[in-house]
Amino acid sequence: MQNALRISEAANLALHTMVLLAGAGDKKYSVKKIAGIICASEAHLAKVLQRLSRSGLVVSARGPKGGFTLSRRPDEITLLDVLETIDGPFEPQDCLMRGRTCGEFGCLFGDLLGEMNERIREYLGGRNLEDVKWVFSSPADKEGPYDEA
C-alpha cells in the first residue's frame, strides 16, 4: 500500500540528520558517522548536508576533529524549516487533480485532503528539533510525545 504522506528521500535524510545532530549537543558528526547511524548513502547524505549548510541550518568544520553541528539551538529549528529547506515551500493541496477534474458538487475526497495537509503543516511547524531529539536516545531517555498530534 502506498503512503498518503510523501516526503522526498533528501528531505527524509535531512530530517533524520537534523534530529540526530539535535541530540548530539556540541559533538561533531562526520558524514560517514551520520550515514552509518541513519543507514543512508554517504554520497546522497553529503549533498543533503551541503544544502543544509548553505541554508544556514548546520555548520561544518574540516579536519580530523571536524564534522557537522547545528547552527542554532534545537528549539529554534522546526521540522517544517528542515523540510522546506530541502523540498521548497510546503503548499497544502485540496485536490489531487488541482481542481480540474471533480464535478461541480465537490471533490471525491471531500475536505479530507485539505484538512490532512493542513494538519501535517501544523504538526511540522509546531515541532522543533528539541521536541524530537529523543528519537536517537537510549530507551531510558525517551520522553517524547508518542501519539500527540
Topology:
Elements: H1 9-24, H2 31-38, H3 42-54, E1 58-61, E2 67-70, H4 79-87, H5 112-126, H6 129-132
Antiparallel strand pairs: 1-2
What is the CATH class? Mainly Alpha
Q: What is the topology, as strand order, of the major beta sheet?
A: 1-2
* CATH fold description: Arc Repressor Mutant, subunit A
Question: Ends: how far apart?
Answer: 23 Å
SS-based class:
mainly alpha
Characterize the main sheet: 2 strands, antiparallel
Keywords summarizing the entry:
5% strand, elongated, disordered C terminus, Arc Repressor Mutant, subunit A, 2 strands, two-stranded antiparallel sheet, mainly alpha, 6 helices, 149 residues
Description:
With 149 residues, the chain is mainly alpha-helical. The chain has a single domain (9-139), classed as Arc Repressor Mutant, subunit A (Orthogonal Bundle). It has a two-stranded antiparallel ribbon. Helix content is 44%, strand content 5%. The radius of gyration is 18 Å and the shape is elongated. A hairpin with a 5-residue loop joins strand 1 and strand 2.
In short:
This protein is mostly helical and 149 residues long. The chain has six helices and two strands.
